[in-house]
Amino acid sequence: MEDLSKTYGRGSKSVPAVKHLNLEVETGQVFGFLGPNGAGKTTTIRMLMDLIRPSGGRAKIFGRSVGAAGALQRVGGLVEGPAFYGYLSGRNNLEVLARTADDYRPQRIRELLEQVGLATRAGQPVSGYSMGMKQRLGVAAALLGDPDLVILDEPTNGLDPAGILEMRGFIRSLAKDRGKTVFLSSHLLNEVEQTCDRVAIIHKGEMIREGSVARLLAENASKLRVQAEPVEKAERALRKRWETSRETTPQERYPWLVVGAPPRESSQVVELLVQQGIRVHQVVIQRPTLESYFLAATSEHPGGVSGVAHD
Amino acid sequence: MINLLRAEWKKTIWNYPLTGFLVWAFPVGVLGFYLVMLIGGAFSREWMYGMLKVGSGAWTEDALGAWGMILAFPFTILSRMLPLAFMAAVFAGEYPSGMWKNLIPRNRRALLILAKMVVVVVLMVLALVATSAVIVAGQGLGRRLVGWEYGPALTADAISSFGIHYAQTILLGILVLTILAAVAALAAVLTRSVLGGLLVVFGFSVVDSLSMYVLILLARIFSVPGIVNLYRFLPGGNIDNAQSWFRTGAAVRLPFENSSIGPDLAFSLAVLVIWAVGLTGLVLAVFERQDITS
Q: Which of B38, B140, B252, B291 is the most buried (most CB within 10 A)?
């Protein structure tokens, strides 16, 4: 994506949804595309799928501009939830989509239905499918043309925990075993953290962070969480040496002290507190998560998280 | 393109409520009419006579009569409603179902619209041909039962003459159906809803059917007689004129003070082709630039 932008409406009623996005996804990666509601994720994905015309900039896929004839031949996508003809069976829906792409291979449809676990229900009308089944069929539809790039927008919506786990494995296997590039948009940060190699975070239509998951997490170092009594005395003692803040949780008896000390200094923290006659109840290591990173990154940008429409 | 047409055909044909009520309603409705005639006729000859009088007495005219549902004013005001509803539903239906996001990345937008136009026109042609066949069969059987003649005799000349006339009517029907399909597609693309599309195409059809009277009224109101000549460039006037040429070999007589004879056949066909191509081009241009946000 080079300077990719989209503004809805004109004049004084115009609403910028995506602003000058620059992003490159390397072949074979699982790339996470994150952002709060209204950030511009789906608008960006729709521009990549040639559903929305950019107001500025351009997107290229495998070197070809989106919108050029045949540019999406190597791309499969599931955009903003699955949509199918309810009166047709799952198999017939896939046949209609495959024929629309002029690439109808019955054997391929059978294989995909097996892979997503719908082989036994493939002959039934989609109107009778659960949300999870439709989601699986949506993934099968995205993979119909054996694409090199798979764009998945919230692929685990409607799936139960076992389904989410299965889908996560499936997405990873697309990249690892079949060499596909996956562009994944999801609200489930835990899922993204465990699935993606790199992530980009957009907020109010602008890119605010991009990098490998490992590097972004390294930016937020591990900390120690301590419960001690008396807490005021403990806080005073720890502050002399480490950055320390207090976190009160209503359901717990003692407040937590968040100490900016690396895990290897945990023994020194305990020793300091004990030497001063403070009782130590718990010391735990707080590892950085993508969720904490995401919340910190988006809260740094003013204006809340609901300012952009059309996402 | 063949695969795309097969995809469009499958999803349209398998939508039984849609095609059942809005396409096959024509031949099935006529079949029902003649079944009622035959059942009632078993009890009352008068009943059967009354129902047989719906026909013209000639199988050639009855066969062509089915096409009057989309070609012959004033029937068109009401009888076009079902095909128009069908077309509006086919084009606009992809918006509420969210299916465009699945279809557009798989093929060119223009081809997706053209495939739909081909399928709706072919389906309507098949339905009207089937309706012709059912009318002729029903009238033929009924008339045989009551001992009435049903001509003309099946001579080589009669069959040949009818074949040419029927082929000309189908050609004209295809042109008209293409114009209606393009209007339905344009309405669907602009309104993105089945109901919105329906209202626009109904409006177009009624205005087109009544255009001659509207123009006469406008000419009188504004005292500009030349306004009525616009009729020569509207679909309705040229449909009437082309039918007159096919049926009688002469132009239609127009109830205008200053121009009582319609244009020649080539002009009328050219105007209809321009409408069909122009409206189709307009739909493709609008759809090509449209953002799909659902």
A: B252
Q: Quote the pLDDT of residue A221.
A: 67
One of 3.90.1150.10, 3.30.930.10, 2.50.20.10, 3.40.50.300 is the CATH number of A2-217, namely 3.40.50.300
* pLDDT over 70, % of chain A: 95
Does A141 sit within 8 Å of B97, measured CB to CB? no
Between helix B194-209 and helix B81-92 the angle, nearest 10°, is 140
Task: Give residue-wise pLDDT tens across range A27-56.
Answer: 888 899 988 888 888 899 999 999 999 998
Q: What topology is assigned to A221-287 in CATH?
A: Alpha-Beta Plaits (3.30.70)
Tell me the pTM: 0.83
A162 Cβ partners below 8 Å, 6+ apart?
Answer: none
pLDDT value for B250: 84
C-beta of residue A91 within 8 angstroms of C-beta of residue A109: yes
pLDDT per residue as tens digits for the range B54-101: 888 899 999 998 888 878 776 677 778 888 889 999 999 899 888 999
- Residue A258 β-bridge partners: A225, A245
Give the pLDDT confidence score for residue B260 in this predicted structure.
61
Measured CB to CB, residues of chain A less than 8 Å from chain B are: 8, 46, 49-53, 69, 72, 75, 77, 79-81, 83-88, 92, 95-97, 99-104, 141, 145, 310
CA distances from B145 to B49, B81, B139, B196 (A): 10, 34, 10, 48
Find the closest chain A residue to B16 by CA distance.
Answer: A87
Is the ipTM value over 0.90, yes or no?
no
Cβ neighbours around A197 below 10 Å, total: 16
Triad B104, B105, B108: Cα angle to 5°:
60
Alpha carbon distances (Å) from B181 to B6, B94, B176: 19, 15, 9
- Structure tokens, B82: 């079902």
Q: Calculate how close chain B gets to A280, using CA atoms only, in Å.
A: 56
Measured CA angle at B10 (ends B8, B12), to 5 deg: 70
Interface of B to A at Cβ within 8 Å reads 1, 3-4, 6-7, 10-11, 14-16, 97-108, 112, 289, 291-293
Question: Which of A187, A189, A145, A151 shows the shortest CA–CA distance to A171?
Answer: A151
Residues 6+ apart with CB under 8 A from A293: A216, A217, A219, A220
Of A19, A25, A14, whose CA–CA distance to A3 is shortest? A19
- Residues in chain A closer than 8 A to B107 (CB atoms): 100-102
Q: Among A65-69, A145-149, A180-184, B112-116, which is the least confidently predicted range?
A: A65-69
- Residue B9 to residue A187: CA distance in whole angstroms: 38
Report which DSSP code applies to A262. Answer: -
Domain boundaries, chain A: 2-217, 221-287
On the question of a common fold for A2-217 and A221-287, the answer reads no
Bridge pairing between strands A75-78 and A149-153: parallel
Q: Which amino acid is at A240?
A: K
Residue B255: band (very low, low, confident or very high) from pLDDT cuts 50, 70, 90: low
Residue contact A52–B292, C-beta within 8 A: yes
The CA distances from residue B287 to A52, B116, B199, B281, in Å, are 11, 13, 19, 10
**b vs e for B177-200, b when ≥16 Cβ sit within 10 Å of the residue's Cβ?**
bbbbbbbbbbbbbbbbbbebbbeb
